[in-house]
Amino acid sequence: MPELPEVDSYRTGLAPTMIGWKIKGGKALWKNASDADFSSIINQKITGFDRRGKYLILNLDQSNIIIHLRMTGRIDLTENETPKYTTVEFDFYNNKKMCLVDYRKFGKVWIVEDIEKIVGHLGIEPLSKQFTSKKFRLMFEKRKGTLKPLLLNQQFIAGIGNYLADEILFRANLHPLRTADTLNKKEVNELYLSIRHIIRKSIRFGGTTFLTFRGPEGKKGEFWKKLQVFRKTGEPCPHCKRPITRIIVGQRSTHLCENKQKLHKNFINIK
Ligand SMILES: [Zn+2]
To answer: N or C: which end of the chain has fewer CB within 10 A?
Structure first.
């Protein structure tokens, strides 16, 4: 599932190729994927790429295209052909197409002048300068909820999904069922460092390649080789060799080492 690093690899991968391309038209082949007015962007050029959380943003002369890949979406650049499972396509004057290819069809495309209308609800960017350890401590102080759902909450921090959350909690020695108000200062800081470390590392390796995700031009992300616990149920923990276990937290499949990420009974529901 595309999370922050996968979307970021589209941003950095597509920008050098696509900046300057002029839009000839576009349409939603699957009507639920977009209700945008595609005629409004005809003859506009792509001027830049950006990302907020898991949203990819293409800046145009006077507007923006925003894409959310959701579960199985990917972006293909093609010449004249429309790949199977394309839900939205954009055509350019150089005869290229940019297609949202999405087997499960949950991905969405918006065309807006004001980006905030779509991404304004998102929490802080975890790699931004504003996201300091002090800021995180302040954000964290008011929270009482379970750690894993809190990390997945896009209004808390933007861009973390299921695999990043499992890897972050493993690195920080924190059980996914711990509640935020049971962490001491050192643990909060360790969680902060792990968020930054895991996301940066995944970006460095180009993200993962689960499901249909592919990097730009079919280049594959290599971070799946670096995963320590995610989808490794029954395999030995890289630290203590005890088997990785899988539990369900907030309806999400969750992977952990119960030896490294201990759960004392006073760690949950203390109030
Ligand atoms: Zn272990």
So the answer is: C
